[in-house]
Amino acid sequence: MPTFTAPDGTELAHHVLGDGPPLVCLPGGPMRDSAYLGELGGLRAHRRLIMLDLRGTGRSRTPADTTSYRCDRQVEDVEALREHLGLDRMDLLAHSAGANLAALYAARHPERVGKLVLLTPSVMAVGITIAGETRLETARLRRDEPWYPQAYAALEAVVAGRAGADAREAIAPFFHGRWDDAARAFEAADEVQKNGEATAAYAGEGAFDPAATRAALARFEAPVLVLAGEFDVSAPQTALAEYAGLFPHARLAVQPGAGHSPWLDDPERFLAVTTAFLG
Question: Containing domain of residue 227, as a range?
Fold first, then answer.
């Protein structure tokens, strides 16, 4: 397991899978062990995947200063990884909450990014508002599923701000293209793979300055792929179309039948889109 040292002295780990041109991968969660990304549906057959364990997760050490879990404080961890790898520029893939970190990195170090893949990204860093009705409209695409009535009622409660402690578990089927044993295992692993303290600090006060980030991304010249899942209530495609519009050279791709983790729902479709973009 390769390691490197962050600017504040924290030892961070990354995992290398496959061969070919490197692709640095930032996990979501937020602050979930990168192990959940697996082999990204077989992408390791096309690229050398560099999976970063964010500070305090996976095999990376817990920092002495736990306020450094804040997203903007981790940008220089990504830069330290690039320097450790000896790359002048790197292709970058980020999933879900990890896209906030990727956006801040691209804004701060635009010359260091070759191509950028934002996979069902969180939109917090760029200040896009997702209306509750947009999430419910996306959820209604699943109305024929046997689990739909209970899950939809729970999502309505979430949108209305009256969700109970079990809300995340109740709406979990909406995050997957198929609610099967593999999806249930993926959800079950989430709780044990996350660093709860880091999750709570990730989007803390001062982490994001959407106006400044949007202004920087408007000048970002690298190619960008924003990949949405057709059924994803977390990152509906209308919001991600707006996200793609923030960049000069971005395209939105919507994977049919996919939820929040498209590489799990249909690896072949996922690979077709990502490899065509990455080259």
Answer: 3-127+195-278
Q: Would you place residue 248 in the very low, low, confident or very high pLDDT band (cuts 50, 70, 90)? A: very high
Whole-Å CA distances, 3 to 26, 66, 74, 77, 91: 15, 20, 16, 12, 20
- Domain count across the chain: 1
Domain for residue 7, yes or no?
yes
Question: Is 169 a domain residue?
Answer: no
Asked if the model's pLDDT at residue 138 lies above 80, the reply is: yes
Q: pLDDT tens digits, residue range 68-82?
A: 999 999 999 999 999
CATH number where 93 lies: 3.40.50.1820
Strand order in the sheet with 48-53: 3-5, 11-17, 48-53, 22-26, 90-95, 113-119, 224-229, 250-255
pTM for the complete prediction?
0.97
Q: Give which of 53, 244, 258 is closest to 142, Cα–Cα.
A: 258
Residue keyed to tokens 């934002």: 118
